[in-house]
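Annotated sample (chain length 161).
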Amino acid sequence: MNTLIIYYSLTGNTEYTANNLAQYCQADLLRLETNNPYPKSRFKKYFWCGKSAVMSEEPELKPFVFDPYAYECIVFGFPVWAGNLTPPIRSFVKKYRDLLSGKRLAAFACQSGAGAHKALAKLEELLPDSLYARLILNDPLEKQNSATQTLMEEFADKLMV
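Output written by the structure step:
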């Protein structure tokens, strides 16, 4: 099954997870980037990223190549901001929603605290079909361990069914 992992990463946790999953299930990767980058310094990051997520903003994305007809399975990956879906993923889904219909859709969320269940539910509300697989990880880059690796491998196995 041809799989594409579409992800947004600010601090590296989501990118780390996307790369691992891509290796496990031989998926292609599409990293989303915004025209106006989000700040990475601690206070500004929490303020601006949290505000953007809570306000359900849809930032403009840098150009990318996306051929929805080349993939049967699409996986979304994102960090959780203020218990919400990351705005770049929201922008993508809103723009390409109709082209996602009939695809096998899955998602993973990386969080430092809580809110991933809520963020995944918000993603599912935007999608044309339900998610058939979900994964929640807590700071997978900083907390690399065998339990996290096992969760990623089990999620990848679901993607390949």
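Annotation: The chain has a mean pLDDT of 93.
Annotation: The first strand starts at residue 3 and ends at 7.
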